[in-house]
UniProtKB/TrEMBL annotation:
Record family assignment: Belongs to the laat-1 family.
Signal peptide: none
Protein's recorded name: Vacuolar membrane PQ loop repeat protein
Disordered, as annotated region: 113-155
Pfam families from the UniProt entry: PQ-loop (PF04193)
Topology relative to the membrane: Multi-pass membrane protein
A GO-annotated cellular component: lytic vacuole membrane
UniProt keyword annotations, A-Z: Membrane, Transmembrane, Transmembrane helix
The organism of origin for this protein: Glonium stellatum
Top-level taxon of the source organism: Eukaryota
Subcellular location as annotated: Membrane
GO biological process, one term: vacuolar transmembrane transport
Substrates-to-products reaction catalysed: L-histidine(out) + L-arginine(in) = L-histidine(in) + L-arginine(out)
Composition bias, Basic residues: 139-154
């Protein structure tokens, strides 16, 4: 996650600069809501087996180096606050995953140490089991047959409801994802329009002066470090999906928002300027954003290949 903030005064708003501002605002909206779908997915599943803790840990390190770079570069308070928010959101998701992993591991240990009740019942004397079923002639059979009919009817109703849910689930997930994407894009665009009208956001000059390059050298080094973390973070998740042959427990919307955030961030930089000095200054953030889009595409392919394991996530 990287931050895009510009400062300028009194410059005219060109179409390229407007698109740069809109893309940057949509990127920020995507990052702000990025982790929410995965938090909800973990809560619904009552588990966090699908997501790799190594992925989250390396990503968290990338956000920490991004925050350090923002502070070192002396960016505006908005950029620093957003970087802090990213780190805080990472901690919430990591804490949730650790909680569910601990709870589920403890439940598994209890189930392993629990006495085998079925084995005890199998070792009971046959006579005792026969006595327990003594009653009026035919009464047990009638009760059993009636219960059997009720059980079959209940199973039929359950199967029909399950089939309806399974048929509707993919379309429902499609609708939810599309609505969420449109809402994030609309929120980002509206946020930029409000910021521009209130002059909170203004067009940024391309040539900020060469003097800032030396000052931002340390921030650039941290930017490259964060880019390496972002590029490497998804590898454990891709390997985990391949090993498990499943993407169950992962939120597809989580990775869609990541893709949108990275794409719009890169577009915001490139629409602002493609001059060599500006491009090289922002290269680490471009690598961190645009490079991870390839890995996101790999995860989308895994969602498609392993879709039979998680039908609601099929693209």
């Amino acid at each position: 996650m990287a931050t895009l903030v510009g400062l300028a005064e009194g410059l005219p708003l060109t179409p390229h600069e407007a698109l740069s501002g809109i893309f940057g605002s949509v990127s920020l909206a995507s990052w702000i809501f990025l982790l929410v779908p995965q938090l909800i997915e973990n809560y619904k599943q009552g588990a966090a087996d699908g997501i790799s803790l190594a992925f989250l840990t390396v990503w968290f390190i990338g956000d920490i180096t991004n925050l350090a770079g923002a502070v070192w570069a002396g960016l505006v308070p908005t950029a620093i606050v957003l970087a802090v928010y990213f780190c805080f959101s990472d901690l919430i998701l990591i804490t949730q995953c650790l909680y569910y992993n601990f709870i589920n591991a403890r439940k598994s240990r209890k189930e392993i140490t629990r006495p085998n009740q079925t084995q005890d019942s199998a070792e009971q004397p046959l006579l005792g089991r026969r006595d327990s079923s003594i009653g009026l002639p035919g009464s047990h059979r009638r009760r059993s047959s009636a219960a059997s009919r009720q059980h079959r009817a209940s199973l039929a109703r359950t199967d029909s409801l399950t089939s309806i849910v399974e048929e509707d689930s993919p379309s429902n997930e499609w609708a939810k994802n599309i609505i969420s994407i449109l809402a994030v894009c609309a929120a980002g665009t509206a946020g930029w329009a409000i910021a521009w009208k209130t002059e909170v956001w203004t067009p940024t000059p391309v040539d900020d002066g060469a003097g800032g390059t030396d000052m931002a050298l340390g921030a650039q080094i941290l930017g490259y470090a964060s880019a390496i973390c972002y590029l490497g973070a998804r590898i454990p998740q891709i390997m985990k999906n391949y090993k498990d042959k499943s993407c169950e427990g992962l939120s597809l919307l989580f990775f869609i928002l990541s893709l949108i955030g990275n794409a719009t961030f890169g577009a915001a930089i490139l629409f602002h300027s493609v001059e060599k000095e500006y491009f090289l200054t922002n290269l680490p953030w471009l690598l961190g954003s645009l490079g991870t889009m390839i890995e996101d595409a790999t995860i989308f392919v895994q969602f498609r290949i392993y879709g039979n394991q998680s039908p609601s996530a099929i693209l």
